[in-house]
């Protein structure tokens, strides 16, 4: 009588992981993602049901505010001023309250010059809006690969850095209109 030997389970697991890695290597480059730096999300207005696409790039590291680490997110989203007027809005969003007052922001794209301007705080204190009426922020953003920002907050100067590669495609994915 011949006794059947069971194959070691480790061999099957190794083979399974090899197949999974090969599939991911083929699929990921064509997954439709704008860039590893930018992710898309959809915001739905609870009153009207209108949808707005957002492009988001998380900071490379969290910042410490009020003794807690929080991850800033650079966000591109449609801002509607009326039914006929809209534009791409640029925001730096936080997971917690950071400030209720407008402040000064310094920034630098890649190795370009450092610039400074006022930015508006949100009523809830969880984001700042970068007003860009003439494209003086969006245009260099589309060409950049890195953005460094320093926000002058009441409790600290918060420094953050964002990977902005693929920003031109991210701007296209967050059009100044609703779905």
Question: What can you see in these coordinates?
Answer:
The protein is 18% helix and 38% strand. The protein has helices at residues 9-27, 138-143, 167-173, and strands at 39-44, 51-58, 63-65, 68-70, 73-80, 86-93, 103-109, 115-121, 127-130, 146-152, 157-163. It is globular and about 40 Å long. The N and C termini lie far apart (70 Å). The model is unreliable at 13-34 (pLDDT under 50).
Q: Topology of this structure?
A:
Layout: H1 9-27, E1 39-44, E2 51-58, E3 63-65, E4 68-70, E5 73-80, E6 86-93, E7 103-109, E8 115-121, E9 127-130, H2 138-143, E10 146-152, E11 157-163, H3 167-173
Antiparallel strand pairs: 1-2, 2-5, 3-4, 5-6, 6-9, 7-8, 7-10, 8-9, 10-11
Provide key terms for this protein.
179 residues, alpha+beta, 9-stranded antiparallel beta sheet, 3 helices, 18% helix
Count of distinct structural domains = 1
Give the strand order of the largest sheet, numbering strands 1, 2, ... along the chain.
1-2-5-6-9-8-7-10-11
CATH class: Mainly Beta
The CATH architecture would be Sandwich
The fold-level CATH name is: Immunoglobulin-like
- The Rg value, from CA coordinates, equals 22 Å
Order of helices and strands: HEEEEEEEEEHEEH
Number of continuous helical runs? 3
**How many distinct beta strands?**
11
Could you give a quick summary of the protein structure above?
The protein is α+β, with helices and mostly antiparallel strands and 179 residues long. The chain contains 3 helices and 11 strands; from the N terminus they run H-E-E-E-E-E-E-E-E-E-H-E-E-H.
């Amino acid at each position: 009588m011949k006794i059947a030997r069971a194959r070691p389970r480790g061999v099957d697991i190794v083979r399974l992981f090899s197949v999974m890695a090969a599939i991911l290597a083929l699929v990921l480059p064509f997954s439709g993602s704008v860039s590893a730096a930018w992710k898309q999300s959809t915001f739905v207005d609870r009153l009207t049901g209108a949808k707005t696409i957002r492009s988001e790039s998380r900071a490379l590291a969290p910042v410490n505010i009020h003794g807690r680490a929080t991850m800033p997110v650079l966000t591109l989203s449609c801002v509607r001023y009326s039914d006929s007027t809209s534009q791409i809005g640029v925001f730096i969003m936080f997971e917690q309250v950071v400030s209720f007052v407008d402040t000064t922001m310094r920034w630098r794209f890649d190795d370009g010059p450092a610039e400074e301007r006022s930015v508006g705080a949100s009523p809830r204190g969880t984001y700042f809006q970068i007003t860009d009426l003439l494209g003086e922020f969006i245009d260099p953003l589309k060409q950049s690969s890195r953005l460094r920002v320093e926000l002058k907050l009441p409790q600290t100067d918060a420094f953050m850095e964002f990977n902005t590669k693929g920003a031109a495609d991210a701007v296209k994915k967050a059009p100044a209109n609703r779905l």
